[in-house]
C-alpha cells in the first residue's frame, strides 16, 4: 500500500507516490484503513479527484442524471460511458479507476457482459468495472473475473431497478430482506468480486456485511461501519440540485459560485468593463498606422 506523500501537486501531502492497485484496496481493509471513492465523468474533475488523494475513482452511470440530464440512470449507453471514462483516465493517474456497466449491457448474459466490460479496459483505460445486482449477477461476475476483469459488485438500492423499487428507496429494512442481501454479498465475494458497494441500506445491515466479507465494502447511505465511502461528485460540490438523497453530504456549494461568476461576466460584458487591457492583445503603433493608411486608400477596382 503506497504511502500518501508529497507530490507534484504543489506539495499537498495527500496523493500517493504511485498508482493504487486493487490488491492495495483489499490490503486497506485488512489493515483497517478507510477507503475513499468519488465519482467523476471528465478530465477536469478527474484531475481534481486525483489531486485530493481519493483512492478509487468511479465513472458512475449516475452520469445519466448529473451529466446527461436524464431522470434516472436507465437510458445511459455503453458509448456514453466509454467516452466519459476515457476522458477521466486521461486526468487521473493515482486512483483505481472503475467503469460502471450501464443498464442492459450485462443483464443479457456473461458473454455480452464480457464484451462490454472489455471495452472499459481497452478503450477507456479503466482498471475494473462495477455491476449492479445481487445473486442474479453471480455467474456474470464469475465469468468476468475468470477472464481477467476485476469486478466491483453493488447491492442494496441499485438505481437501475428504480422502477421495480418504486423510487430511490432504502432496501433491506426487514430481517428477511437483510438476510437475503447478506447472502448475496457473500455469493458475490465467492464469485470473485474484489469489492462491493452497499447503497442505501440500514447501517447495522452494512456493518454485518462488512464483518462477514474479506473484500472491502464501500458504503453510500450505508452508515459508518463500511470499509470505505463513496459519494456522487455533483452532490458533494453542490452542482446538482434536482435530487438530493438524505445520505448525500454537500461539502461545498460550487454551483452558486459558478452562477455568481457567470453573472459577473454577463454584467462586465454588458457594461464594457470586460475585456480590459489585461485580457486584450496589442500591435505596434507603426503596424497600426500602416494598416490605417492602407485602409484610407481608395478601394482597388474589383477583378472581373
Ligand atoms: O453511478 C454511481 O455513481 C454509483 C455510485 C453512487 C455508487 O453507482
Name the descriptors.
12 helices, binds 3-methyl-2-oxobutanoic acid, elongated, 304 residues, 40% helix, alpha/beta, two-stranded antiparallel sheet, 10 strands
Structural account:
It contains twelve helices and ten strands. It is α/β, with parallel strands linked by helices and 304 residues long. Strands 3-4-5-6-7-8-9-10 form an eight-stranded parallel beta barrel, surrounded by seven helices. It has a two-stranded antiparallel ribbon with strand order 1-2. Helix 5 (110-122) links the parallel strand 5 (96-100) and strand 6. Helix 2 crosses helix 4, helix 5 (110-122) packs across helix 6 and helix 8 packs parallel to helix 9. The longest helix has 18 residues, at 254-271. It is elongated, with a radius of gyration of 25 Å. Mean pLDDT is 94; it is low at 6-13. The structure holds 3-methyl-2-oxobutanoic acid. 3-methyl-2-oxobutanoic acid (KIV) binds next to loops.
In short:
The protein is an alpha/beta fold and 304 residues long. The protein has twelve helices and ten strands. Residues 6-13 have low confidence and may be disordered.
Amino acid at each position: 500500500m503506497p504511502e500518501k506523500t508529497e507530490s507534484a501537486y504543489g506539495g499537498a501531502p495527500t496523493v500517493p507516490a504511485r498508482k493504487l492497485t486493487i490488491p492495495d484496496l483489499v490490503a486497506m481493509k485488512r489493515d483497517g484503513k478507510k477507503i475513499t471513492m468519488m465519482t467523476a465523468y471528465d478530465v477536469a474533475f478527474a484531475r481534481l479527484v486525483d489531486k485530493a488523494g481519493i483512492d478509487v475513482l468511479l465513472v458512475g452511470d449516475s452520469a445519466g442524471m448529473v451529466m446527461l440530464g436524464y431522470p434516472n440512470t436507465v437510458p445511459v449507453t455503453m458509448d456514453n460511458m466509454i467516452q466519459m471514462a476515457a476522458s477521466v483516465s486521461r486526468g487521473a493517474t493515482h486512483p483505481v479507476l472503475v467503469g460502471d456497466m450501464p443498464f442492459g449491457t450485462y443483464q443479457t448474459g456473461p458473454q455480452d457482459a464480457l464484451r462490454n466490460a472489455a471495452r472499459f479496459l481497452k478503450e477507456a483505460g479503466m482498471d475494473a468495472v462495477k455491476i449492479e445486482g445481487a445473486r442474479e449477477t453471480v455467474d456474470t461476475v464469475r465469468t468476468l473475473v475468470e477472464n481477467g476483469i476485476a469486478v466491483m459488485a453493488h447491492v442494496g438500492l441499485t438505481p437501475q431497478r428504480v422502477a421495480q423499487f418504486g423510487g430511490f428507496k432504502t432496501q433491506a429494512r426487514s430481517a428477511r430482506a437483510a438476510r437475503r442481501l447478506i447472502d448475496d454479498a457473500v455469493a458475490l465475494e465467492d464469485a470473485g468480486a474484489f469489492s462491493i458497494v452497499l447503497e442505501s441500506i440500514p447501517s447495522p445491515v452494512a456493518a454485518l456485511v462488512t464483518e462477514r466479507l474479506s473484500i472491502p465494502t464501500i458504503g453510500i447511505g450505508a452508515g459508518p461501519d463500511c470499509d470505505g465511502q463513496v459519494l456522487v461528485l455533483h452532490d458533494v460540490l453542490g452542482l446538482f440540485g434536482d435530487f438530493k438523497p438524505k445520505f448525500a453530504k454537500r461539502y461545498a456549494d460550487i454551483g452558486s459560485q459558478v452562477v455568481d461568476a457567470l453573472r459577473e461576466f454577463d454584467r462586465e460584458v454588458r457594461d464594457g468593463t470586460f475585456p480590459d487591457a489585461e485580457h486584450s492583445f496589442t500591435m505596434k503603433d507603426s503596424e497600426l498606422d500602416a494598416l490605417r493608411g492602407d485602409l484610407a486608400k481608395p478601394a482597388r477596382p474589383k477583378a472581373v
